[in-house]
Design a protein that fits this description.
single chain; 235 residues; alpha/beta; Rossmann fold; 3-stranded mixed β-sheet; 5 helices; 27% strand
Length: 235
């Protein structure tokens, strides 16, 4: 869908179905019709450029308020502002919320966010008191967005463009990997830390990694997150 509509699209899930909606012109409609079997088109009125904002609202998780810049937190709340856009991670997705909720319950220390996307988890970690925090992503756009988001929040964050399966990893007490399972498992095999929080996969799945023990699990909206502890001393 992103190849057909690079400017982005909305996704709505139901029981057994997924609907994708994009704002586009006639040529874009024809491109979509050439790929998908079921397509419907509606004319939209004035102001459609801002309607996507209706899909992004603040969430409260792990003692933090995480939301877009056009919404306001209550006085005294611990705030992370994330502008939805070019990189994955607004804070509202179930896997992100689950990672932050689990993170809030861990002892503070050095943290590595592997596959940081927009940087929301890394910035949340700073807000929760983890230090130092390093964030990395293989996508240069994500790295740029994470740096911008950290600056917007007044957070000092070490963000690196890095392949977490091949490049050197920073020393850390905790690694957070909210990425696909195909990346989580080989990352864990590298022993990036003694404690890991992993997510990015559906609730019926879990990482299979030798030398790690699952000590906590959190399911949200059909997705799952785990806390794992390394059972050897090689970290």
């Amino acid at each position: 869908m992103l190849e057909l509509v690079p400017s982005g699209f909305e996704e709505t899930e139901g029981r057994g179905w997924v609907e994708l909606a994009a704002y586009t012109d006639r040529a874009g409609e024809e491109r979509i019709r050439a790929v998908f079997a079921e397509v419907s088109a509606l004319s939209v009125g004035d102001g459609w450029e801002e309607q996507w904002r209706e899909f992004h609202h603040a969430v409260r998780v792990g003692g933090l308020w995480i939301g877009p810049p056009w919404e306001l937190a209550s006085s005294g709340e611990n705030v992370v502002v994330v502008d939805p856009g070019r990189a994955f991670g607004t804070g509202a997705h179930a896997t992100t919320r689950a990672c932050i909720e689990l993170l809030a319950g861990l002892e503070r220390g050095a943290l590595f966010d592997a596959g940081c996307g927009s940087g929301v988890i890394a910035i949340a970690a700073v807000r929760l008191g983890f230090d130092p925090v390093v964030a990395a992503d293989v996508d240069p756009v994500a790295v740029e967005v994470a740096r911008e988001t950290a600056c917007q929040n007044g957070v000092s964050l070490d963000v690196r463009e890095s392949d977490v399966l091949r490049d050197d990893l920073p020393p850390a007490d905790i690694v957070v990997a909210n990425i696909e399972l195909a990346v989580v498992e080989p990352l864990l095999a590298r022993r990036p830390a003694r404690t890991a929080i992993t997510s990015g996969y559906l609730a019926h799945k879990a990482p299979a990694a030798d030398g790690w023990e699952v000590v906590e699990r959190l399911d949200l909206d059909g997705w799952s997150a785990h806390v794992l502890i390394a059972t050897d001393a090689t970290c």
